[in-house]
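Protocol step 4 of 5: obtain the predicted structure for the target chain.
Materials: sequence only (see below). No template structures provided, no constraints applied. The aim of this step is simply to have a reference model before the mutagenesis design in step 5. Sequence pasted as it appears in the construct record:
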Amino acid sequence: MIRAAMLAAILAAAPLAAHPGHTPDGEVPQASPRIEAQVPPEARGSESGGLPWTSLEALDAEARFHFVVVSDRTGGHRPGVWQDAMDKIDLVQPAFVVSVGDLIEGYTEDRRQLEREWDEIDRMIGTLDSPFFYVPGNHDYSNEVMAALWAERLGASYYSFTYKGALFIVLNSALFDREGLEGYGKRGGDWAEEQEKQLSWLDETLKANEDARWTFLFMHRPFWLETFVRPNEGEDVPATGPWPKHTRSPSEWDKVEEILGRRPYTFLSGHEHVYNYEETPGVPHQHRITLASTGGVSANRGVDYGEFDHFLWITMTEDGPVIANLLLDGVLPADMKQKHRRPWWAPRDPSDPKATDGAGGE
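Step 4 output (structure tokens):
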């Protein structure tokens, strides 16, 4: 079962059942480890037959693992947020971390500037205890100079890896043909041949991993979304809509959907800086998530608007992924310091902006 939850706030998302019979060939479901517990015979109630626990079957198994997905840092980055995210990810100790792109500001052919920006983000990523997997965004890969630098520093811009029977696929959305589509800039280079290679590779990789217990895909732009048309500067924007949308996506996205077929998958993207969750109508076990931000430009109006700094905490179980949105503000270290140390029933400190009078009353 897949469930979506949120630490400090909950985002509604419909549960998905696990893919029926989707067990890789030769893989035997493993029993949960058993907790060893003891009741002292002299303790009151030890003879009653009652037990102070619900089960000794731990929610754990060799096949289970946890990983993190981070969203856009740039597109108008807010200083300090990304490093804060790195520090808080270390608190939850995932097996690894995957990006959805937009790590540098980019959009320049100044190689020195690009090198400085990559050095900066790499220093912050280097503070993680966990491995980090890069995904190209439009701010990372938007012209030939940036593409060449990516190749020099990071190698391939699309690739795959497996872990404990799950397949992970990274795609480069910059290679998709966006010619003539409103709301999308043109490809930043002569990359048509590279895109053909990417789509062929995707097809081959999925066929070679038909028995994967789950497939996770990462691509910066959510080509499945009908995105809103951004207004011109000074243009009046109605508070309640309707707001016009871009309704066309690259034709090559149709090819990706065709290749995926009815395969169970989780597709993760960024770019919009607003959270979105959707499923494939009529096809179980396929869902697509567009993350909000991890430091990128945002109105930050909160959960009700899908605007917040967060990362995804994904637990891969025997039945499929369980996905939680962890808000950065809700992940705190054990040694956190309180500015106002006092009993819960005492009035707010007078210096607290939320105090309603000079005495700190409510």
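Step 4 remarks: Residues 3-26 have pLDDT under 50 and may be disordered. The first strand starts at residue 4 and ends at 7.
Proceed to step 5.
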